[in-house]
Specification:
heterodimer; A: alpha/beta; Pyruvate-ferredoxin Oxidoreductase, domain 3; Rossmann fold; 4 domains; eight-stranded mixed sheet; 23 helices; about 35% helix; B: alpha/beta; two-stranded antiparallel ribbon; 12 strands; binds thiamine diphosphate; binds iron/sulfur cluster; binds magnesium ion
C-alpha cells in the first residue's frame, strides 16, 4: 500500500561536505510543496571529516519530532551507509555509491530496496554538459543524493528547480545551471530504474499546493526575530555552540539597527549588556553552558541593581565542555539557583519553535516589568531543528517597559537635590521608578553592595531587610502578574489516563505522541512548564488530580521533577529520561510511556531522594 | 559626548553628600577632586554623565560623584562602561578603578578595550597594592619589593600598563600623579576630550599599605645629571620637549616612530617617574566603525532607537525577514 506524505529521510556524510545545505534543500523543496517538515541535525564538535547526519521527517500535518525509522537513506560515501543502513525499514530504500561500498558489508534489513548511483560518473557527465572543472564538482554529490531521493519519491523535477532558483540568488545564481544539470542526471538515473523497483518503493510525496505559506525555520532564527520584534537593539556574545547562530542572525540583519558586539569572553558579554541596559536600551546576550557559568557574577549584579536583562542559554550536553554540539536539558537547576546570594530570577523555556519567537518577545517585557534578569533556556534540539510552522502571530504583542520614572518624579528629584530615589519601593507596584541617564534629574547610583533608595552603599540591617525583601518579593509578583497560559499549558486528551510532565523542546514531541498513544489505548495529556522559576504553584491542582504522572526530561536528574517536588510537594516516580546528547524520538517516547503504563519497568531507589522510582532511560541514536 | 551646560556648575555640584571613608592621606582624594574639577570645567551635565567604577578603595569614586555613579564588579568596569557608551554615545562615560582591578583581574578587558577604541577615558589608580583587601601585591608592584602587608617579598614582575596599552591599541596614553592636582586635572580633561579610548594611569600613594612609595617618597628630589644636581622625582615628559602625538595617522613611519618612543618611555627604569601624554593618535572610534556597518546607528543610538508606537505596539517590521523563510 502506498504511503503518502508520511516519510522519514536521512542524509549523512563527513562534516564539511554539504550535508546541512543538502538537507536544507530537501526540506525547502518539501516545504514549498506544501508539506510539513521537521528536520533534526546531528553533528560532531569538528569542522571537517567527522560523521554528521540530518534527518527530515515529512508529514501532512504539523509535526514537532523525528522518528527513528528511516524510509530513505541517501548516502554518497561509505561511512553513512555503514552507520545508518540498519535503520532503513522494510520497504524503504538506500541510495549508495557502488564504487564506494559493497552491499554485503551493510547490515541491511531484508526488503530494503537498494539504488546504486555511481556519483563520479554523474559528476563527469555534469562537467561535460556544463564545461565546469570535474575536480571541483565533488561538493555536488549531496545535491545528486537529494535529487535522486526526490525522483524516487515522485516529486516533480520542477519542485527542485524552483527551490534551487530560490536558494541561489545574486552572485550564487551562476551555480544554478550546474546544479540543475546534476539534478537532471540524477532524475534520469532514477527514472531509468526498472519499474519493479519503483513499484516496491511505497513512499510518495504529493505536493499540496493549496497550503498557505508557512515559515521553515529553526529555533535560533525564531528567537532572533522575537528579539528584534521586542525592540532589542543591543546584543553581546562570545562564540559558542549552539548559541552563536542567534547572534549571527542578528548581525546579518544590520537593517534592523541592532548593535551586535562580539566580546572577549562571556564575562564581558554579560557585563557589557548590563552596562548597555542601564542606559535604557533593551539588551541581551546569548550563550551556552560554559559561558552561562561565567556570567553568574554579572547576573547577580543585575539582580542586585534591578537591571532588566535577558540571557539566552542554549543548552548543550554538559558538564564542562561536555557534548558541545549535542542536546541536553541539563541547566535548569543551575539557572534557577545559580549565582551567590539570593536575588529574583525568572527562568523560562520555549515549548516549540513558534514559542521561541514568543518567549523571546515576552522575556524583555518581563525583564522590564520585574526589573531583574530573565533567563531563557533554549536547547540544542530546537535551536538547530528546521520546522515548518504557521507565521508568527503578531497581533496581541504589546511592549511593556515596566515602571519608568515619571516627569513629576524627575522634577521632584531635581528639587530635592539628593539624586533620584531609583530603589525606593513604590507603595503600589513594589517596583521602583527607573529613570534613563540623559534625563534631567536622573542621576542615581548603582552598586552590587547593599544600598539605600538612592543607591548609596549601606550595611544598615533595617535597610538591608527592606531592600532584600523588596527584591525577592518579585517572585510573588511574577506568579501573580504573568498570565497563567504563559506560565504553563495543559494540552492533549480530556480525561487522560496519564499526564506527561515536561518543559522545553520535549513538549512538542509529547504532543506528537498523543495520537500514537491513543491508538495504543492510552489517553494522555501534557503539562508543559513554560515558566520554570518561580515554578507555577497553580499547577499543584493539576498534578494532584492527575490519574498518573510521568516526567519526561532530557537529563539524568529529573531537574524539573525536583523543582516540582520543592514547590508543590508532588513527587513523580514515573520518569523517562535521556542523556546521550541525542533527543528523544517519537517512537522511543511512545514505547517508554507504554512500558510505564503496563508496569513493565523495574522499580529502583533514586539516590538523590531515596524514593522508589520507575525510570526509563532512553539511549537510541548515533 | 555629552552636551555642554550653558551655565557651568560649580565643583560642588559634582560632589555627592555621601560620607567619604578613604584613609586620611589617601591619593584617591586627589584623584576624586581632579575628576570633579574636570567635569565642572568641561561643563558636563551630571545627568548625562556616567562614572563607572571597579571594586576596590578606588571604586568608591562612583558614590562620591553627583553624576550617575555605577559600582560594577571587580575587574569588570570596562565592559560595563563600554556597554553604556555604545548603547548611548550621547552620554559622557568614564571608567575608573584600581590597578588590581584593571591590570590584574580585569587585564583581559583592559587589552580588548584598546582594540575597540571606544570614545571614553579610563582612569586607573595605581597604588601597587590591593587596598581594599588589605594590601596584597597588585600587578604594578615590582619583583622583590615588600610592602607592609606582604609576608614575603613580591615574587612577580610588575607589568608596564602603558606599554601594554600601547600594544593593545589605546589611542591616548598618559600618566599623572594623584597629588599634582593641576597636572592631573588637565590630564583628565585631555583624556575625556580625546576622541577614542584613553588610558590615564595615576600614581597614587596608599599611606596605609604602601610604605615603599609614599607621598614623601614621591616628593623627594633625586639625583639628576651632573654633580650635586637634585631634581624632582616626578617629571613631566611633555615639558621636556617630548611629543607623543601622531600628526598623520596614515603615515606608518610616523606612527611607528611615535610608538617606539612611547614604548621606551613607558618602560622607563630609573629613579624618576615620568608623567604626561605618552602617545596620542586619532583613529576611527568603535561607534564610527559600527555606524559604517549598521547605518541606522548614525541616526539613532541603540538606546534611543524607536521600536514602539504610542500605544506600545511594536513597530519593527519583520515582513522582509519573514519572506526569506516563508514557503
Ligand atoms: C571576583 C572578586 N574577587 C575578589 C574580590 C575582593 N576584592 C575586592 S577589592 C580587591 C582588590 C582591589 O585592588 P585594586 O583594584 O588595586 O583597588 P584599590 O583597593 O587598591 O584601590 C579584591 C581582590 C572581589 N570583590 N571580587
Ligand atoms: S587602604 Fe590605601 S588605597 Fe585604600 S583608602 Fe586607605 S590609603 Fe587609600
Ligand atoms: Mg590598587
Amino acid at each position: 500500500m502506498k504511503v503518502v506524505n508520511n516519510f522519514s529521510w536521512m542524509i549523512g556524510g563527513p562534516q564539511g561536505t554539504g550535508i546541512e545545505s543538502s538537507a536544507n534543500l530537501f526540506a525547502q523543496a518539501c516545504a514549498s510543496a506544501g508539506l510539513w517538515v521537521f528536520g533534526k541535525r546531528e553533528y560532531h564538535s569538528n569542522i571537517k571529516g567527522k560523521h554528521s547526519y540530518f534527518q527530515v521527517r515529512v508529514f501532512d500535518k504539523p509535526i514537532n519530532s523525528h522518528v527513528d525509522d528511516v524510509h530513505l537513506l541517501a548516502t554518497f560515501e561509505d561511512s553513512t551507509a555503514r552507520l545508518h543502513a540498519h535503520e532503513v525499514v522494510k520497504g524503504g530504500a538506500l541510495i549508495y555509491d557502488p564504487t564506494k561500498i559493497m552491499l554485503d558489508d551493510l547490515n541491511l534489513k531484508s526488503g530494503v530496496i537498494t539504488l546504486p548511483i555511481d556519483f563520479n560518473t554523474v559528476l563527469r557527465h555534469v562537467a561535460e554538459v556544463t564545461g565546469e572543472d570535474y575536480g571541483k564538482l565533488a561538493i555536488m554529490k549531496n545535491v545528486i543524493a537529494v535529487a535522486a531521493s526526490m525522483a524516487l519519491l515522485r516529486m516533480d523535477i520542477s519542485e527542485m528547480e524552483e527551490t534551487l532558483n530560490r536558494l541561489f540568488t545574486g552572485k550564487k545564481a551562476r551555480l544554478i545551471p550546474t546544479n540543475m544539470a546534476a539534478v537532471k542526471k540524477a532524475y534520469e538515473a532514477v527514472e531509468a530504474l526498472p519499474q519493479e523497483i519503483h513499484n516496491q518503493f511505497l513512499y510518495h510525496l504529493t505536493p499540496n499546493k493549496k497550503m498557505a505559506k508557512r515559515l521553515l525555520i529553526n529555533g535560533a532564527s525564531a528567537t532572533a526575530m522575537g528579539k528584534l520584534k521586542a525592540g532589542c537593539r543591543y546584543q553581546t556574545y562570545y562564540p559558542i555552540s549552539p548559541a552563536t547562530d542567534e547572534s549571527n542572525f542578528l548581525e546579518s540583519h544590520p537593517e534592523s539597527g541592532i548593535a551586535v558586539v562580539q566580546c572577549e569572553d562571556e564575562i564581558a558579554a554579560i557585563d557589557m549588556a548590563l552596562g548597555a541596559a542601564t542606559t535604557g536600551v533593551r539588551a541581551s546576550t546569548a550563550t551556552s553552558g560554559p559561558g552561562f557559568a561565567l556570567m553568574q557574577e554579572g547576573m547577580g549584579w543585575g539582580g542586585m541593581n534591578e537591571v532588566p536583562i535577558v540571557v539566552f542559554n542554549y543548552q548543550r550536553g554538559g558538564p564542562s565542555t561536555g557534548l558541545p554540539t549535542r542536546h541536553e536539558q541539563g541547566d535548569l537547576m543551575f539557572s534557577a539557583f545559580g549565582g551567590h546570594g539570593e536575588y529574583p530570577k525568572l527562568v523560562m523555556a520555549p515549548a516549540d519553535i513558534d514559542d521561541h519567537f514568543h518567549v523571546a518577545f515576552e522575556s524583555f517585557n518581563y525583564a522590564d516589568k520585574f526589573q531583574t534578569p530573565v533567563m531563557i533556556l533554549n536547547d540544542k534540539l530546537l535551536t538547530h531543528s528546521l520546522q515548518t510552522i504557521p507565521p508568527f502571530q503578531e497581533s496581541g504583542l504589546v511592549i511593556d517597559r515596566g515602571r519608568l520614572a515619571t516627569p513629576e518624579e524627575l522634577e521632584a528629584a531635581i528639587t530635592e537635590g539628593k539624586g533620584f530615589p531609583r530603589f525606593r519601593p513604590d507603595a503600589k507596584t513594589v517596583m521602583s521608578p527607573r529613570p534613563y541617564p540623559g534625563q534631567e534629574g536622573s542621576p542615581y547610583w548603582m552598586t552590587g553592595d547593599e544600598h539605600d533608595d538612592y543607591g548609596h552603599i549601606t550595611e544598615n540591617p533595617e535597610i538591608r531587610i527592606k531592600m532584600h525583601e523588596k527584591r525577592l518579593s518579585k517572585y510573588k509578583l511574577m506568579l501573580e502578574q504573568i498570565p497563567q497560559d504563559k506560565q504553563f499549558t495543559l494540552k492533549g486528551e480530556k480525561d487522560a489516563d496519564v499526564t506527561l510532565v515536561c518543559w522545553g523542546s520535549t513538549s512538542g514531541l509529547l504532543l506528537d505522541a498523543v495520537e500514537p498513544l491513543k491508538e495504543k489505548g492510552i489517553k494522555v495529556n501534557i503539562l508543559n512548564y513554560r515558566l520554570l522559576h518561580p515554578l507555577p504553584i497553580a499547577t499543584e491542582k493539576i498534578l494532584k488530580s492527575a490519574k498518573k504522572l510521568i516526567l519526561v526530561e532530557s537529563n539524568w536528574g529529573t531537574q524539573l521533577g525536583h523543582l516540582i517536588r520543592m514547590t508543590t510537594g508532588v513527587f513523580i516516580p514515573n520518569q523517562v529520561v535521556k542523556y546521550t546528547g541525542r533527543p528523544m524520538s517519537l517512537n522511543e517516547i511512545v514505547d517508554a510511556v507504554e512500558k510505564l503504563m503496563k508496569k513493565e519497568v523495574k522499580p529502583e531507589v533514586d539516590p538523590l531522594t531515596g524514593m522508589t522510582i520507575e525510570k526509563v532511560v532512553l539511549t537510541y541514536g548515533l | 559626548m555629552a552636551s555642554k551646560l550653558q551655565t557651568p556648575l560649580t565643583v560642588a555640584a559634582y560632589k555627592s553628600d555621601v560620607h567619604n571613608d578613604w584613609c586620611p592621606g589617601c591619593g584617591d582624594f586627589g584623584i576624586l577632586q581632579a575628576i570633579q574639577q574636570s567635569f565642572a570645567e568641561l561643563a558636563l551635565p551630571p545627568w548625562e554623565s556616567m562614572v563607572f567604577a571597579g571594586i576596590g578603595c578606588s571604586g568608591k569614586v562612583f558614590n562620591y560623584m553627583a553624576s550617575h555613579g555605577v559600582h560594577t564588579l571587580h575587574g569588570r568596569v570596562l565592559p560595563f562602561a563600554v556597554g553604556a557608551k555604545l548603547a548611548n554615545p550621547n552620554l559622557e562615560v568614564i571608567a575608573v578603578g584600581g590597578d588590581g582591578d584593571g591590570y590584574g583581574i580585569g587585564a583581559g578587558h583592559f587589552v580588548h578595550a584598546g582594540r575597540r577604541n571606544v570614545d571614553m577615558a579610563y582612569i586607573v589608580m595605581t597604588n601597587e597594592v590591593y587596598g581594599l583587601t588589605k594590601g596584597q601585591a597588585s600587578p604594578t608592584l615590582g619583583r622583590g619589593q615588600q610592602t607592609k602587608s606582604l609576608p614575603l617579598p613580591n615574587t612577580n614582575d610588575a607589568i608596564q600598563p602603558l606599554a601594554l596599552a600601547l600594544s593593545a591599541g589605546y589611542t591616548w596614553i598618559g600618566r599623572s600623579y594623584a597629588f599634582d592636582g593641576k597636572h592631573l586635572k588637565e590630564m583628565i580633561k585631555k583624556a575625556i576630550q580625546h576622541k577614542g579610548m584613553a588610558l590615564l594611569d595615576v600614581l597614587q600613594p596608599c599611606p596605609t599599605f604602601n610604605d615603599l612609595h609614599t607621598t614623601e617618597w614621591f616628593n623627594k628630589k633625586v639625583k639628576g645629571e651632573g654633580e650635586n644636581v637634585m631634581v624632582p622625582r616626578i617629571f613631566n615628559v611633555n615639558d621636556q620637549g617630548y611629543d607623543g602625538a601622531v600628526k598623520d595617522p596614515t603615515n606608518a613611519d610616523e606612527v611607528n616612530e611615535k610608538k617606539s618612543k612611547a614604548f621606551e618611555m613607558a618602560n622607563y627604569v630609573g629613579e624618576r617617574n615620568p608623567v604626561g601624554v605618552f602617545y596620542e593618535i586619532n583613529l576611527p572610534t568603535y561607534v564610527e566603525r559600527m555606524q559604517a556597518q549598521v547605518p541606522m546607528l548614525k541616526q539613532y543610538a541603540p538606546a534611543l532607537m524607536p521600536y514602539q508606537d504610542a500605544s506600545h505596539l511594536p513597530t519593527t517590521d519583520l515582513s522582509k525577514v519573514y519572506d526569506e523563510y516563508l514557503f
